[in-house]
Write a structure and sequence with these properties.
The complex is a heterodimer of chains A (about 300) and B (about 325). With about 300 residues, chain A is mostly helical. Chain A contains eleven helices and two strands, in the order ααααβααααβααα. In chain A, α9 runs parallel beside α11. The radius of gyration of chain A is 19 Å and the shape is globular. Chain B has a single domain, classed as ABC transporter involved in vitamin B12 uptake, BtuC. Classes of the chains: A mainly alpha (about 300), B mainly alpha (about 325).
């Protein structure tokens, strides 16, 4: 039973890891995006909706394994679009990044509830058919590889130095000939795409359902993980696993019949609060995080 | 905070752009934008009963809008109103469970506000002692509140006669409609009065001034001898009082049920509506009231939209998100 829990924790960690790695990339460039929760929601809806539309409304024929891949790409595309909006507001328009992030969360909460109702005509709950489902272990492996890749990118390549410079000292980066706003925009787009893919993972791989509350705070847990990981993708793997463990534990306790399910569902949130309170002191965010860069 | 400099023109532009994008979204998803908008914005103004109902919708939004505004004043992004509303409602239900008769009313306020303040003290203390970002901590507290309240309503406070809701507030303790045949209860004047009190507090009290100074410039605040930590604590506590009040009123002053729905339907989302109201109202209590009336009209209108044009109720939330997005975009371009 315990080994099953540890394996489940890996699956529960995956959306938190994907979103956190994306957010680390974004925040290292100097942009904060607290809209992860909303991006997850939009991604969770976009994938199943797109392949359903393609199959039943357009009548497209396709070899079976392609459907989930298309669903993930559709989610990523929605993430890119929202990332462009948030990134553009945060960089070129020098808007308020926190307010924009809140707007993404509010918009997504409405849009997903509206979308489920408008497209499927059901109130807030739609099962994902088998043909659209992806293997969660494949996505989990991809997420782990991506975390390692992002660490390599950020700390071992020239591009990584450029990205981090934009988040630490945009003035100097600019003086070295870096187009700060462009780097930040692209990092935000990449991060948003990953958060949306995390949502697609929830709906088509992990939970096999689209609901209007499918992200259930995981976007904010991913934000907590960014702090926990001290903006390091490798540490984010450990963090995601710890957060994922408590998420899996809550379901595990439920199946074991320990306590009422309402109590077990509180476990991940209480654990997140305690973990964040425990590590907060040593966290060091990028120095220019959340500050728009304006050329003098 | 920066958003206070957003001008009325900015707000109007944000509204227009949000409704324009909303038109496109509605058109793509196959609904009629014209009849939807007319049902959403004009129908509530066409009839007294509808308009009073819109005002009834505005009351809890004013209160949660004040929570968010008070946080902003102190430089906080407090999104915990949602959970504190649940706690307020839970306190009111507990009072109805424990007592009978008119004594339930004062106990409902006492227990609801106590639970809400207790709930906000966790993120406040974590912020002050450990520097925990309030965005993360308040969201986590919202989810814990969600499950605590659902559990309480489906076990101890369950209504044996009606499984979909909690025990009811006994009749003598209810705030009944001031205008018969409508939802317009004392909750509306109470909420607006709360906004007025918050305005007085911010403008004329020492603590209101301390909160504003430490939110505007924590370093300057220290040199004036103001402790920003205490300003944070006061802003959190006072914000939870208004949010908790919203929760209590949703139980003691909301006909016809006077109870808490088991799926929390009559309190769900009020905290997030408050964020929209606070942003639209530029954090000013009077602005928050005006914005809440606008949102109340939209919510009342959404019911008509669903009936008249078939457009799902949730569309209102889409518009709210878009409004804030465009407000964010405008802010620094003063």
């Amino acid at each position: 039973m315990i080994d099953l829990l540890l394996l489940q924790a890996l699956l529960a960690a995956t959306p938190i890891l994907l979103a956190a790695v994306g957010e680390i990339l974004t925040e290292r460039s100097g942009v904060v995006n607290i809209g992860l929760e909303g991006l997850m929601l939009l991604g969770a809806l976009a994938g199943p909706l797109f392949v359903d539309y393609l199959k039943y409304k357009v009548g497209a024929q396709m070899p079976d394994p392609l459907w989930p891949l298309l669903a993930i790409l559709a989610s990523a595309f929605v993430g890119i679009v929202v990332g462009l909006v948030h990134g553009y507001i945060s960089t070129y328009l020098a808007g308020d990044q926190i307010i924009s992030g809140v707007a993404i969360n509010l918009f997504a909460a409405g849009a997903v509830a509206y979308g489920i109702q408008a497209y499927w005509g059901v109130a807030g709950y739609k099962q994902v058919p088998d043909w659209a489902k992806a293997d969660p272990y494949v996505v989990a492996t991809f997420a782990l590889a991506l975390a390692v890749f992002t660490w390599f990118l950020l700390f071992k390549t020239r591009l990584g130095i450029v990205i981090r410079a934009c988040g630490e000292d945009p003035e100097s980066a600019f003086n070295m000939g870096v187009d700060v706003n462009k780097v930040r925009l692209l990092a935000t787009v990449a991060g948003s795409a990953l958060a949306a893919v995390a949502g697609a993972y929830l709906s088509i791989a992990y939970l096999s359902v689209v609901t209007k509350e499918i992200s259930a705070g995981r976007g904010f847990i991913a934000l907590a993980n960014v702090v926990f990981a001290n903006w390091n993708p490798l540490l984010a793997i450990a963090g995601a696993y710890i957060f994922g463990f408590f998420d899996a534990l809550s379901y595990w306790l439920q199946t074991m019949g320990v306590g009422r399910y309402e109590i077990t569902r509180m476990v991940p949130y209480i654990a997140t609060l305690l973990i964040v309170a425990g590590v907060m002191g040593r966290a060091k965010p990028p120095r220019a995080l959340g500050k728009p860069f304006k050329r003098e | 905070m920066r958003f206070q400099t957003a001008s009325a023109v900015n707000i109007a532009a944000a509204l227009v752009m949000a409704f324009a994008v909303g038109t496109a979204l509605m058109w793509i998803s196959g609904y009629d934008p014209l009849s939807s908008y007319s049902a959403m914005l004009i129908t509530p103004l066409s009839d007294w009963v509808y308009f009073l109902s819109a005002l009834a919708f505005s009351a809890p939004i004013v209160l949660t809008g004040l929570t968010f505004s008070l946080g902003l004043r102190a430089g906080l992004f407090n999104i915990g109103a949602e959970g504190q509303v649940y706690m307020g409602a839970l306190g009111a239900v507990a009072a109805a469970y424990l007592l009978g008769g008119p004594a339930v009313l004062p106990l409902a306020f006492a227990m609801g506000l106590f639970l809400a303040v207790l709930w906000s003290s966790v993120p406040a203390v974590l912020k002050i002692w450990r520097g925990v970002n309030e965005v993360i901590s308040t969201i986590m507290m919202n989810w814990v509140a969600y499950w605590v309240t659902i559990m309480a309503v489906s076990t101890v406070f369950a209504n044996p006669l009606q499984p979909e809701e909690s025990v009811k507030v006994p009749e003598p303790a209810r705030l009944t409609p001031l205008v018969p045949g409508t939802d317009f209860t004392a909750a509306v004047p109470i909420a607006y009065a709360a906004a007025f009190l918050v305005l007085i507090f911010l403008k004329y009290s020492v603590w209101g001034y301390r909160i504003s100074v430490s939110g505007y410039n924590p370093i300057a605040a220290k040199s004036y001898g103001i402790k920003p930590e205490r300003a944070v604590l006061v802003a959190f506590a006072l914000g939870s009082v208004t949010a908790g009040l919203a929760g209590v009123l949703q139980v003691v002053a909301r006909p016809p049920s006077y109870s808490l729905a088991r799926n929390l339907a009559n309190v769900y989302g009020l905290g997030f509506d408050g964020i929209t109201a606070a942003m639209l109202g530029r954090g000013h209590p009077v602005g928050v009231v005006l914005a809440s009336i606008f949102l109340g009209i939209m919510q009342e209108g959404a019911r008509h939209m669903q009936i008249e044009a078939g457009t799902p109720y949730e569309f209102v939330k889409v518009i709210q998100g878009l409004i804030i997005l465009f407000l964010a975009l405008q802010l620094l371009r003063k």
